[in-house]
């Protein structure tokens, strides 16, 4: 594969041949079926929602500095944390890596000119926009106060807020996940380049494949649960209302049957990104490739059987609790294996600490802590004490923000030169990565402590003994805000003043690097052919050295 | 407010939970330390351009390492599951001689009623070293009674009973609060758990102005609502006799056999068509809307008292 990189000299990457030069009108973007342009559309939209969700939670953290509150009413507070959850889960995290990097990179990674159904791909973005419009309407018309979980009978009979528009927004955006999932499954099955066998797929492609399975199988269940909520709230259908024979726990079963796999929708792509980045910046084959593949598959399958661990105190049978507890411990095994494998990938590597690697290392640390605290919550007695407290809040933020967002940033920085053809300022990016790691820990470590001490979640006013932890957490959130704003600056600047990246600035393996940056409309100038397993970094490095080039020089190497 | 109102381990069970928490913290700390140490060592030793020897490791060794840590992780997790599960199963074993306290939750307060008939709001008095069983229901949305010092929490559901049992070993005033988001004032739906010595509890109960205990209040209600017209032993209407009913197995018209517990009795009053008893015509009127959850508690307490009085004489009553 290494020989294939050489024919593409930087001189040939002119704007005219790239996908960005295929038209500059608004319609050329809004009606495009190019997976790369759709990825950009998605990236812009989810960035907007990331900052909406971020600003809202910034207000929440500001309010929580005082135990008695100081600028919000309890209703406003409840609406703020609800919209934060809804926006961040469904309008940022679920589409984050699959809809942006998955869309852009997956077809290139397997050597395809586009996804299997390019128009379905565009439709999925429009569905996202329609769902997002409902959510913006909810935001502007006073919000929703049920939390992102929509538990009845509160949501169906007691809440005086925009429950139905919020549910419709999430319902619609769910179909965009399903469309993306179907598309990726078909793409991976049908469009692999000659020689790209299943066990030559890079782990990011595997992660997209497994996450698509989960999206396609789980999201319809979310749609069901929201439809039932709306039917009961709007038409009074007796589904969850116990006074007329309904079952309030039924909703929680249906909801978590989606929402636990949804956690894997958020973390599997992150695992894929981190595997790519580790291999590239350690110049090393990913340790235990086949185990990594099976771990992804096991997580995807067993992830469907653990939803009951959200309901240990809900009034479910104690024996059901035991079964769900056992399965939750088991689903942690493949996650642990992955952490060990990433660590072992570093062994005997040629490790560079460029920004993508710093983010990826941050991911491994935070994901490990998030995963281990998951074991606490899989133990029934500890879950009974800690559930619905800040311990749980900290735990899932370690996975979703510490894990998924770190990996999202790692991926953005890793593939940025490919997507835009430009290099960003490496030093600024490294600073942002380190700031993010510090800010994150400062925000969420105190939440573990106060959660175990007994601070319940979703509390506007709280006992003053917990104030110190809330103040620390809010301080961390301020640091985190800086870390999220920094990339807007240096990535934005790179578009104007960034150096040309060249085809393969990281000297990475993988088909996506064997084409100009930014890539042409059809992705490849010559149809690629795959002749070896992924991550052949040893041979790659040797080949470069023999050619007399400076071996593997990353930009701004800190050494 | 003092932190001890949240953090004191006020029962043996709470101490067990704390031990498990400590065990998990130690194991997790060790794993984090191991992974961090390895990463840091590798970063230093194999930094790009360093002189450490590189080269491939044999594939067979790779595979053995992989299988090794997979198996080690699996058994560690299995051990942790076993520890946690055995803690939970021990806590499940039903204690005898319990003091049954009724809890009705509503937006945004806790109503407590003791077997002696004493009521309190947002305050729960219990005797130490006694098995206390809370029988809880909600009048509106889902709430959750959280007793931090007991390390216990249980959702409180509308139109259903859920239970929480504990045995406090430390006297004192502790926190009690709602842990399931229930609307505007969720965060102030809080109160106090007051654990006193059994003697003080007895004194406290007898000092309260309430006249009758729950069962007697229920008996009055039983007459005033007209239940006794059909369910009294000498009645001409063909309705089930309630003596010895509580805890007994009941054959239903649709072939199911259920145990007559609180939830069953409640359903019979509020949703009589749900569980029709075999051999009886569907005459029972529906009382949902005409009795409050508190009154249902009283009626159920009365029906239960009919069993305790007649245990000696009724046959086939299995508890």
Average predicted confidence as pLDDT of chain A: 91
CATH architecture of the largest domain in chain B: Sandwich
N-to-C SSE series of chain A?
A: HHHHHHHHHHHHHHHHH
Fraction of helical residues of chain B: 25-40%
> How far is the N terminus from the C terminus of chain A?
29 Å
Major beta-sheet overview of chain A: none
What is the percentage of strand-forming residues of chain B?
Answer: 15-25%
Q: Could you give the order of strands across the largest sheet of chain B?
A: 3-2-1-5-8
- In the CATH scheme, what's the topology name of chain A? Cytochrome C Oxidase, Chain A
Average residue-wise pLDDT of chain B? 86
Features:
heterodimer, A: 559 residues, mainly alpha, Cytochrome C Oxidase, Chain A, 17 helices, disordered N terminus, disordered C terminus, B: 319 residues, alpha+beta, Helix Hairpins, Immunoglobulin-like, Cytochrome Bc1 Complex, Chain D, domain 2, 3 domains, five-stranded mixed β-sheet
Tell me about this structure:
The complex is a heterodimer of chains A (559) and B (319). Helix content of chain A is 67%, strand content 0%. Chain A is mainly alpha-helical and 559 residues long. Chain A has one domain (2-7, 30-546): Cytochrome c oxidase-like, subunit I domain (Cytochrome C Oxidase, Chain A), CATH 1.20.210. The longest helix of chain A is centred in the first third of the chain and has 36 residues, at 74-109. Chain A is globular, with a radius of gyration of 23 Å. Chain A starts with a helix and ends in a 13-residue tail after the last helix. Chain B is of the alpha+beta class and 319 residues long. Chain B folds into three domains: 10-92, Helix Hairpins (Orthogonal Bundle); 98-206, Cupredoxins -  blue copper proteins (Immunoglobulin-like, Sandwich); 214-310, Cytochrome Bc1 Complex, Chain D, domain 2 (Orthogonal Bundle). Chain B has eight helices and twelve strands. Chain B has helices spanning 4-7, 12-45, 59-92, 198-206, 214-224, 228-231, 262-270, 293-310; strands spanning 98-106, 109-113, 119-121, 123-127, 131-138, 143-147, 152-156, 162-166, 172-178, 190-196, 249-251, 257-259. In chain B, the strands form three sheets. In chain B, strands 3-2-1-5-8 form a five-stranded mixed sheet, covered by helices on one side. A five-stranded mixed sheet of chain B has the order 4-10-9-6-7. A two-stranded antiparallel ribbon of chain B has the order 11-12. In chain B, a hairpin with a 5-residue loop joins β2 (109-113) and β3 (119-121). In chain B, α2 packs antiparallel against α3, α5 (214-224) crosses α8 and α7 (262-270) packs across α8. In chain B, 34% of the residues are buried. At the A-B interface, α4, α6, α9, α11 and α12 of A face α2, α3, β7 and β9 of B.
